[in-house]
Amino acid sequence: MRFVIITGLSGAGKTEAVRGLEDLGFFCVDNLPPVLISKFAELCYQTGGKINKIALVIDIRGGEFFDELLSSLDDLEDEGIRMEILFLEASDQALVKRFKESRRRHPLSPDDRVIKGIEEERGRLKSIRERADYIIDTTNLRPRQLKEELANVFEGEGKKEGLLVSVVSFGFKYGIPLDADLVFDVRFLPNPYYNEVLREHSGENPAVREYVLKGKDTQKFLTMLCELVEFLIPKYIREGKTNLVIGIGCTGGRHRSVIIANELLDALKQNNHRAIADHRDIEKSVAGDESK
Predict the structure, then answer these.
(1) Which residue has the higher pLDDT, 17 or 286?
(2) Which residues is 30 bridged to in the sheet?
(3) I need a surface site. Which of 28, 29, 42, 206 has the fewest CB within 10 A?
């Protein structure tokens, strides 16, 4: 029987995580008081295996009961019941934006600024975060990408731990991703915009991909880029980083940056790294995007 505790910062995506785990066959319960975990586990065992994948959402909404979570988990381990902890987090900027968009109040700051509630919550969750089996930073993850990451963690092989690399293609004309840790400018590569046959297609098109990749500079750059990222990943892991955001930019974010981002993603996956791609500006209008 598999028990998973879903916890983390308010606004970090626990609701989406529940939906993802339900799709993976988990029986999910939201906002269960920690003192009831033991009783709930006992009831699940009594089903004779009919319920063998359980996910419980336990977070700061439980008020004073939440502080009993660690002691409840210790009691369960004494009884021979092992629970995995999935901790979701995101940057302060992303969390504030989500609260504003949803017009929700932070549970620890109902009458004050959201950022104060976030700061207090980070402090209160520090101990449970240190004990987490899996930490997922959802700052750059869309719901679909979070679902893919959950599938990697709970169904994949050899991808349960380590740094999550997010490769983001973008157009400089729309701004550099604010959360990017590394940014690479690929505007020096062959530009499909000047080819009338290719212009309207994105970097996902095979002909556009071939046009960009056939250049000697492209191949040399890709080799050096992949080697650099491979060199840096263990350094970031050693520093305790859980999410690395790599920005790949061209003028409009539709052609060259998409191709290089996809190539880097493939290389990372071939080396067994956890990696996802987000083509931020690929749907933007092509008119004038690559004119420089």
Answers:
(1) 17
(2) 57
(3) 206
